[in-house]
Structure formats: structure tokens, C-alpha cells
Amino acid sequence: MSTIARKKGVGAVLWDYLTTVDHKKIAHLYLISGGFFFLLGGLEALFIRIQLAKPNNDFLVGGLYNEVLTMHGTTMIFLAAMPLIFAFMNAVVPLQIGARDVAFPFLNALGFWMFFFGGLFLNCSWFLGGAPDAGWTSYASLSLDSKAHHGIDFYTLGLQISGFGTLMGGINFLVTIINMRAPGMTFMRMPMFTWATFVTSALILFAFPPLTVGLIFMMMDRLFGGNFFNPAAGGNTIIWEHLFWVFGHPEVYILVLPAFGIFSEIFATFSRKRLFGYSSMVFATVLIAFLGFMVWAHHMFTVGMGPIANAIFAVATMTIAVPTGVKIFNWLFTMWGGSIKFTTPMHYAVAFIPSFVMGGVTGVMLAAAAADYQYHDSYFVVAHFHYVIVGGVVFALLAGTHYWWPKMFGRMLNETLGKMTFWLFFIGFHLTFFIQHFLGLTGMPRRVFTYLPNQGWETGNFVSTVGAFFMAAATIILLINIVVTTAKGEKVPGDAWGDGRTLEWAIASPPPVYNFAQTPLVRGLDAFWLEKMEGKKELTPAEPLGDIHMPNSSFLPFVIAFGLFVAAFGFTYHNDAGWGLPVGILGLLITLGSMFLRSVIDDHGFHIHKEEVLELEKKEANA
Amino acid sequence: MANQTNSGNERVDLAYRRRKNAEEMRHQMIAFVLMILLTLIAFAAVGYEEFSHWFVVPFILLLAAVQVAFQLYYFMHMSHKGHEFPTMFIYGGVAVMLLLVWAFTTVIWW
Ligand code: HEM
Ligand SMILES: [Cu+2]
After folding, report:
1. Looking at the partner chain, which of B1, B85, B96 has a beta carbon nearest the beta carbon of A206?
2. How far, CA to CA in Å, does A155 sit from each of A70, A75, A135?
3. Which ipTM score applies to this complex?
4. pLDDT in tens, A464-484
5. What global pTM score does this model have?
6. If residue A156 lies in a helix (H) or strand (E), which one and from where to where?
7. Where would one find the signal peptide in this protein (chain B) (predicted)?
8. A179 vs B1: CB contact, 8 Å cut-off?
């Protein structure tokens, strides 16, 4: 919301969002675009399930099926799950640590626009010949042979651009959490979601560079005559697989650790009890991240690395189950003896435990290298990762949406509709994926566009498709809920659920631009709860009321990212058309030029004066 | 929060700070001279025909590692207080990359 509440035209609002550097608005941007890509990926999933609903179907055949399948995976991981996680990190982390913004607001906006234009570029492939078709893992042996259209080039350049955005976001949160915590907020007083964000950001910092390198090699091979992955010219196709999975396995933890963080908040809030075993939770999170870097080759057991390498990576993989188990027990003990309130977010949290544990168990099964020769590339693997990703990450994103919606938008999502969404989604999820374990065990390979009748796979596939439609229905109800709430939802106070424990619940919903009129003093874990238990309604301030320094909005992040978008088009086509190279260079000039402008223009930001702050706070109190 | 890390605190006694700065300067000078020396040695090692490549390549890599350490610790003040996080993340990154190189050399190329 702007400093001075007033009605603005559509154009002004649009311009506001295009130039914003406010973490709360950037959270909205991530939420909207991540949500849009989630719907797109969901539509692709429905198409996949329709094609597989019966044997010998011809709804999506051959190449087109490969494109839809590839784009489903790529979209869901890079363009839906990641940005939605960033949405919550942006919306919540600065508030949870008592800060006025992230450390680098300009960089924050730039990160968003990089992700946005990368995703847009990737999806332009649909209209320009064909989408990438080598799977979300894009193994070099497939992707270097995909020569019918530029699909793979859209994948490499699109992910490269959005990957830069993610890397920026990660670094920004690291610096924010290290440097901008309110007085008294020691590391061991940070809320679990902030901890998860911190560790996840470190994972991003270390895991994305290998992907960047892999994508650069791939770009060289496909567009600039390189031979990194081409065995005929002395390259090695396995190198891509290693680079991809050195990134790829930490990536799954980049997705799931924030999910763990979200659930930790929800369990504590709605059990109305301090999180059980807080320090062991922190330790387990760090340990999972650490181990997550030493297990990537469990995706490559069947490549032929030899028994020693397989054994090492198998054992390393299995050890991750230990810290994960610690967390599961801590959540159970948090609920134990609590006075539990079954709100919509709590529904997801409770359902998450058995669902995620099932995914973990199949994970340990897969980690047994010898057995993996049987499971690998079958529907069993598909079942495994959907159990962890949907049962863990997507449940958390839905739970987080319900939990923090009132904080982000000032209105409560309808609880009845919310619970309907939950039940439909929960039933649909298990219907879709449980049976896939057995399809896999009876030999159905993944990534095939059809199968023959009388192999015992008809019923399983049909059930699975029905389940997918349940999840689609759930999503539609969620959308209706959002529309209804936005139109006439009830307005909520700062502590929207009444049971808030962390700092974000101590300020208005939605928070004012400057978040905290006075930086709060943190006196323990669950700082807001602590104050409430002492009968106070507000936080103890750590500074006198004064002028607040704010950064200026800027259109440059948009332009910098847009330049790369243009450049990507140019270089994709530079071998086919004369305009390719000039357009590529033009794009780079746009980017470098606006970076130059950013460096030379002095931008000192502005101040919100003390009187203004007082007036705003008074208005909040009366509202 | 300690985010002003490598600037001196004005309130500290002036004489002490003088001495401290002089000492710092001396360290920087020594490091600088050593770095030039190391560079000369590296050039000499490559230029001298008698040494085999099997000696020269690891040797100059070792010199390079020493140079990086000098750069980080003497010129970028990583040894000072308040650099714990950068230190942690630099070594974390180095560890991840070493693991990667180790895995590549053992699993892919042998
Ligand atoms: C106890 C923890 C886990 C273990 C032991 C484990 C183990 C494994 C193994 C061995 C594979 C390779 C199977 C194969 O391709 O043959 C695999 C695949 C996969 N896992 Fe996990 N996993 C665990 C947790 C997770 C989590 C938390 C996520 C994500 C949030 C995840 C996401 C994936 C994905 C996406 C794949 C498939 C990648 C692909 O080939 O497309 N796993 N897992
Ligand atoms: Cu993995």
C-alpha cells in the first residue's frame, strides 16, 4: 500500500508494480506470476494424464507429448515452485526479523524480473516452432539430438536468465538475514521459516553455479559450435548429467526446506505451543543442506559409475533420512499436548506428515543402488518425487497461501472453501500418485506417451487420471476463494489468526510501507508471543520514533532483464538469420546500458517524516 | 549489528590505532613483496626448460593458491573480526567445488 492511501488508476498501479523495490510488492509479483505458471503447469499435467488415461490413446502423440511433459516438469520446478517460495520469503522474512526491507531492494526487483523474463522466454517456444522436448533434466544425449526446432535453446537461455534471478534472490536473503536482524534477534531466536530461508539461500548460492556452467556448455554446444558433450568430438555427455544433478539434488532441498519452514510456523501457531526441539530443528536443517551436496549421483546409479561410487552415494543418500526423521518427530511432538486448532493451514500441515513420510520411504528404497536398477526410469520414481514435491512442497505452498494471505492482503481467505480445496486436493493427490508406485513396480516406464492394452496398466492409469481432475477442481475452488475474498472478504487485524507468535503478526495487515514504525526489540524466540504473554499488545521498541529512510522506485530492473530477453532471442536465431547477431548485441547493450545508468545516477532514496509515520500509525489504530 | 567491519572505531585510543595501522601497513608491504617474488618464481619455473610439465603445473597452481590466500587475508582483511560469514561461505564454496572436482576425476575420467 502506498504511504498516502488514495485511489489510483489502473495505469498508476501497473507502473507502481513495474518499478517497485518494496519486498511486499515484489512478493505479490512473485505470487501472481508463480501462480500463473502453476496453472499453466497444471494444465500441461492434465493433458499428460488425459493422454495416458487409456491404452493406445492419441490425444497427444509422440513429439508433442514430449514437449508437454518437458514443459510440465520445467515449469513446475523453475517457474511455479521456486517463485512461489520466493513470494513467501519476500512477504515474510523481512517482517520476521524486524527489518524494513531486504538488504538490496533494487537487486530484489532485478531478481524478480530476471525470473519473469526467463520464464516468458521459455514459454515463447510454444509459438516459435516447438517447446523443449528432452525432459526437465534435458540430458545432453537427447537434447543435442533435438534438432527439429529451437526448443532446447529456449530451455538453456530461458533457465539461464531466470537462474541468475534466483541466484540474486538467494544472495539477497543471505545478506538480509545476516545483517538486518532487529536488536536482540540472535540466530537462535530466528523463526524457523527465516532459518529455512537462510539455509535455502546458502544452497542456492552453491547449487546454482553448476547449473549455470552446465547451461553455458549446452548453449555453446547448441549455438556456438562447441563440443563439450559431444563424444564424437572428444566431449563427454555424462558431464551434463553430473553438472545437472550437482545442482538438481540440492534443488529439491531448496524447494523442500522452505516448505519445512512454513509447516514449522503453522504447527507451532495452531498447536499454540512453542516448536518442539527448536535447536535440533535448526541443526537438522543445516545437516540436510550439508548432506544434500554429497548425494547427487543417486540419480545416476544406472549410468555405470561402478560399484564403489554407487555404494558411497547410496550410503550418503540414506543418511539424509536421519535429520529428516528428526524433523518429523519434532512436528509430532509440537502437536502433542497442544491445544490444536484445525484451520485450513493446519489441515495441510497434518496431511503433510504421512504424505511426505511415504515419499521419504520410497526415497530410501530408491537409494539402495542395486534395487534402483529395477526402479529407475519407471513410474515408481515418478510416484516418489511427486509424493515429496506435492505432498511436501505444494502442500506447504497451499498452506502458506492460506496462512499468510491475511498478512499480505489484509483479508482472510474463506475457511469453508479452503477446507474444500484441501480435501479435494488431498484425495486427488493420493488417488493420482499412490497407484503409480504399483504401475512402476509392474514395469511401466516413465516418459512414454502411450502403452499397449492387457499389461495390467489400464486401471491404474485410469484411476490416476481421475485423481488429477480432483486436484484441478481443488485449484478452481481456490481461485474462486481468492476472487470472493478479494471482493468482499472480512478485514483482519494485525494478528489475523489471534495466535501469531512471530514478529510479522505484530504489525498491521497488510503492513505499512516501512513495516515497523520503530525497530522492535526482540527478547526471545517467538518474540510477539512473549510480549502477549506478558499482557502487552505491542512490541517493545528498540529506537525512538524518527524519520524513516526508504529506497526510490526504479524502472531499471525491468529494463535490465528485458535486455537479456531480447538478447536471448537474437542468439537463439543467430545461425539461421542475419538479424540474429545484431539483435543479440542490441539486447546486451540494453542490459549493459541500463546497468551503467544505475551506476552513474545518484539515488539517495527519500525519507518518510516522523509526523507522517505518526499519522499513518494512528489511522491504522483506528481502522 | 556488526556490519561496519573493516573501518577503525574512532573512540579507540589514537596512539593505539596509529601503532595498529603501522603494523598493518608493514604486513601489507611484506605480503606485497612476497607476492611479486612468487610471481617471478612462477615465471621462472615456466621459462626454465629443464623442469618437466609434471613439476611445473602443480607447482604454479600451488603458488597461485598462496597468492589467493595473501590477497584474501592481507589485502581484503579477511583475518579481521567481522568476516566470519564471508570466511564460512568462501570455504563452503571451496569445499563443494573440491568435492565436485574430486568426483569428476574419479568417476568420469578414470
Ligand atoms: C529421504 C530422502 C530422499 C531420498 C533418500 C531420495 C532418493 C532419491 C533417489 C535415489 C532418486 C533417484 C531415483 C531414480 O531415478 O532411479 C530420487 C529421485 C528424485 N527425488 Fe528423491 N529422495 C529423497 C527426498 C526427496 C525430496 C525431499 C525431494 C523433493 C522435494 C525429492 C525429489 C526427487 C526428484 C524430483 C527425483 C526425480 C528426478 C528425475 O529423475 O526426474 N526427493 N530420489
Ligand atoms: Cu536426489
Report:
1. B96
2. 10, 10, 10
3. 0.81
4. 999 999 999 999 999 999 999
5. 0.92
6. helix A151-179
7. none
8. yes
